[in-house]
Design a protein that fits this description.
By secondary structure, this protein is of the alpha+beta class. It has 8 helices and 5 strands. It binds iron/sulfur cluster.
């Protein structure tokens, strides 16, 4: 909305929500493209199936791609389509959704995924096999957030830089155990205090990686 108005594309404090005061101060409906794309299908087809979703599979698989599957498909069935070369140890639900140990029986549905500290979001699955380090994956995702932070609020602007620096030190074996505690604490603060969804989800991947794969971090610190 701000870009359309000729302003910097930064979020504002809510309320008021766009439905009350949006573009040029008028009530505005904002939906993501996926939602809008479904509307004509829902109107046109009598047998419209709202549970069909595009699942984006990437990471350590030989056949990455976008697969159209029912919501609730087992993770193992999606992974079989991706034909991984090595044993999968973890999955990330995109950069936003956090990570968890790979469980082929887990259903890809908001209820099943959210119960495990993750967020399903847009059915994006990034596979990580046992040949790859979770610390390196976390560092790569942290680079994305550091770049994408719009800089408006302090926790996200400064915090995404600091967690990236900590993760880089951990990856290079230059960090101490105290740095791991700082990483955990800082990640929690960024999540709790950032202004918009980007900052609030910027450290999901770190917090879940520390929860499920802490040993990999500990092995890298002095
Ligand atoms: S959380 Fe990050 S992206 Fe969102 S307003 Fe704050 S600095 Fe900008």
């Amino acid at each position: 909305m701000h870009s359309v108005e000729g302003l910097r594309g930064q979020p504002t404090q809510k309320p008021p929500y766009p439905t009350e005061k949006g573009l040029f101060g008028k009530p505005t409906v904002l939906n993501n493209v996926g939602t809008l794309a479904e509307v004509p299908l829902a109107i046109y087809y009598e047998d419209y199936n709202p549970n069909l979703r595009l699942h984006c599979l990437s990471g350590n698989v030989t056949k990455p791609g976008v697969y159209e599957l029912q919501l609730g498909t087992k993770l193992g069935d999606l992974m079989a389509l991706g034909k991984p070369k090595h044993k999968i140890k973890a999955v990330y639900f995109g950069c936003f959704g956090g990570c968890m140990p790979y469980n082929p029986e887990l259903k890809i549905s908001p209820e099943d995924v959210c119960g495990k500290d993750c967020i399903l979001g847009a059915c994006t699955v990034i596979a990580v096999d046992e040949k790859h380090s979770i610390v390196n994956v976390a560092t790569n995702i942290a680079k994305f957030y550091e770049f994408e932070s719009c800089g408006k609020c302090t926790p996200c602007r400064e915090g995404t830089m600091r967690v990236l620096a900590l993760l880089e030190n951990i990856s290079m074996g230059k960090a101490t155990r105290k740095d791991l505690d700082t990483l955990q604490e800082l990640s929690e603060v960024i999540k709790e205090t950032s202004l918009c969804g980007l900052g609030q989800s910027a450290t999901n991947h770190i917090l879940t990686a520390l929860k499920y794969f802490r040993k990999e971090f500990e092995e890298k610190v002095k």
